[in-house]
Amino acid sequence: TAIDTNAITPGSKFGRTSCFSKSGGKFAINLVALWAPVNYQNTYVFDFNTTTGVFSGLIRVTTPGVFAMAFSPDGNMLYVNKWSTSPALYQYDLTAQSISASKTLLSNTLFGGMWLGDDDKIYGVQTNFSPGLAGVINSPNTAGIGCNFVSNQILLPNNLVSANLQNIVKLEVPIIENDLSVSFSVDTSDCSAVVF
After folding, report:
1. Is the peptide bond before 157 cis (omega within 30 degrees of 0)?
2. Does 192 have pLDDT greater than 50?
């Protein structure tokens, strides 16, 4: 089955790619087995408690060849980019009764990394090397093809092509401590001394 709520299979594995949702409340990681007799590769989605730091609610999404992932701004959709001889961009609706049945093929275009922009659109660079194009998921909170994926929406300057986009962890996690105080003082006699 595509979704399995059993524990992660024991053994030596490494994380190929991972991402947090914008709120920090969800985390996805793609694990690949080391020295396994079979090709073990699964993507796991967890709830993450930003107060306690505890991961829970394990969901396993089996899509082999995952290169990059991104959550929708509301954290309800997971976009998984398969980079292999059969490239594919999939969307999973994490709120669906059957997450595996919600798997929607958005494109067979070969993409590298994906990134959720400040405008709440998801960007992915094409890696077909002619010319430098970026695809955009314009409405990533919307389930299915209504998410409005356009594979060649942006022509990159000077045919710039890369297999990835910047890797910036952008969490909008609220400050939990109510008694946090910050003070600043500046020593005006020496411009090199600033104390926080």
Report:
1. no
2. no
